[in-house]
Amino acid sequence: MTTPTTPLEFRHAVRAGQFRLPTAGHCGDHAQANLVILPRAHADDFLLFCQRNPRACPLLAVGEAGQWNVAALGADMDLRGDVPGYYVYRDGELAGQPHTLHELWRDDLVAFAIGCSFSFEQMLMEAGIPLRHVAQRRNVAMYRTNIANAAAGPFGGDMVVSMRPMKARDAIRAIQITSRFPAVHGAPVHLGDPGLIGIADLARPDYGDAVDIAPDELPVFWACGVTPQEAIRAARLPLVITHRPGYMLITDIRNATLAAF
Amino acid sequence: MTTPTTPLEFRHAVRAGQFRLPTAGHCGDHAQANLVILPRAHADDFLLFCQRNPRACPLLAVGEAGQWNVAALGADMDLRGDVPGYYVYRDGELAGQPHTLHELWRDDLVAFAIGCSFSFEQMLMEAGIPLRHVAQRRNVAMYRTNIANAAAGPFGGDMVVSMRPMKARDAIRAIQITSRFPAVHGAPVHLGDPGLIGIADLARPDYGDAVDIAPDELPVFWACGVTPQEAIRAARLPLVITHRPGYMLITDIRNATLAAF
Fold first, then answer.
1. What InterPro entries does the record point to (chains A, B) (predicted)?
2. CB within 8 Å of A100: residues ≥ 6 apart
3. Which listed residue, A98, A142, B49, B98, has the most CB atoms within 10 A of its CB?
């Protein structure tokens, strides 16, 4: 395909089956979203879970039951086909990786779009703060912690965090920058000693790839969008649909408009 | 004396010789200021030094030559007697500790009022962030660093920092809060490993008192108002007058009004 230049063109390319790859680096000025779709029967509990855990589950938009064209996320949106990869979970187990949801869609499905760290990473890079995993062309390192989520209905578990090593000076600046963006995880939840939040070994992340940490760097930890995915799987619901990790929904929302001040 | 309730009443008590003690804890909602007074011949260089080192030397106000009633700092201000203790330096050496400046005042003296960490400490305590030196009734610990100041004329040297130990969570919150107050030193300049900024031993501060640091705490470092005093002494000017450390000028400026956003 020709390289799409707008989120709408990108989504149209995805919808047409012309793009089925990870979305990192595409439409960089616009927010990419984690997608969670589940039946109305569990939607209220999940909404409450997100409300109670805003660092890990910052909601960009929630659709009505059955609604796949959530205008708050973008023009001519079709959540049934605008994501380049879906995961279908049944009873907590991965049961399918369809490219569209047309056969699965039901009138009681509710879509949740959750902010993604790609948005604040753009702001950090524009501020001249180097990101190790980007430089090393790896996925960001993610870890389970002992920070308990606030439970709601069947959803609970512990927070998952992403880690970026930084010099103290950059860490301070990164706290300032990401504090402006509560809709995409906001400020870090921890920095320094990983053992204090239950992480035994930074060299062995639970998700993503380990990255090198220099002696003059601190590990800085942000709440991660994998947290709700873990909570959802642990809840072992009959049906949950998510995006495939890394294969995000590209929205029309400009990252810069997410700044809280 | 009866306890003064407003900054103006406080200054009047000082001026009347009724208060000659450290000012910590007095008129807590209002900014206390570091005071530097020096002849016009060196004032332009010192102004430039402050402009180039805003973290250490955030200017609340600068008077005109000969002006002791700087209205930007408060009503009915008299910088010749409204500070409970003065230091007079001649050729870089402490040469006197007068209670008033009436005999020293000259038409070419220029007063600089520099923001003080008492202001942001109020904001931290109101946010529920414990301050160890306050709890331990000690002076804050201060250290010389290897962070070079940007020089201007005879003024140079290295940054002096104050250190407050905090849990990571509180350190992150403290960065958010103090970032809002660039007029009183703003965000920290460092946190974590003190060796990275040239501090050999936290137990041996260069000024103030050492405080205990718990295993789950990080040292957090802010640029300190002692920096300009060090630079001034090192410049060995014929005459410089400052407040006596801890004996600050209490201004009419409400701390809350210093928030940049």
1. D-Glu_cyclase, Putative_hydro-lyase, UPF0317
2. A80, A81, A86
3. B49
Distance CA B237, CA B38 (A): 9
Asked if B163 reaches chain A (Cβ–Cβ under 8 Å), the answer is no
In contact, B24 and B243? CB cutoff 8 Å: no
Domain check: are B94 and B169 in the same one? no
B9: three-class secondary structure by DSSP: helix
pLDDT on residue A4: 63
Closest Cβ opposite residue A168 in set B168, B172, B196: B196
- State the CATH number of the domain containing residue B158: 3.30.2040.10
**Which DSSP letter does residue B244 get?**
P
Chain B CB contacts of A175 under 8 Å are 172, 175-176
Distance from CA of B133 to the nearest CA of A (A): 22
Q: Look at residue B236 in the predicted model and tell me its pLDDT.
A: 96
Q: What is the pLDDT of residue B25?
A: 87
Find the residue in B nearest to A176 (Cα).
B176
CATH of the domain at B106: 3.40.1640.10
* Alpha-carbon dihedral B90, B91, B93, B97, rounded to 10 degrees: 10
Question: What total of structural domains would you count in chain A?
Answer: 2
Indicate the residue of B176, B188, B218 with minimum beta-carbon distance to A187.
Answer: B176
So what's the ipTM on this one?
Answer: 0.89
Residue A5: the pLDDT is: 84
Q: Are residues A125 and A110 in the same domain?
A: no
Is residue A78 located within the same domain as residue A106?
yes
Interface check A57 vs B, CB under 8 A:
no
Same-domain pairing of B212 and B253: no
> For an interface test with B, which of A166, A172, A179 has the most B Cβ atoms less than 10 Å from its Cβ?
A172
Angle at B80 between CA B58 and CA B156, to 5 degrees: 35
Residue B195 touches partner A, C-beta closer than 8 Å: no
Pick A176's closest partner by Cβ from B187, B192, B193: B187
Across the interface, of B193, B196, B216, the residue whose CB is closest to A196 is B216
Domain containing B222 equals 118-227
Residues of B with Cβ-Cβ distance to A187 under 8 angstroms: 172, 176
Same domain, B243 and B196: no
* Residues B168, A192: C-beta atoms closer than 8 Å: yes
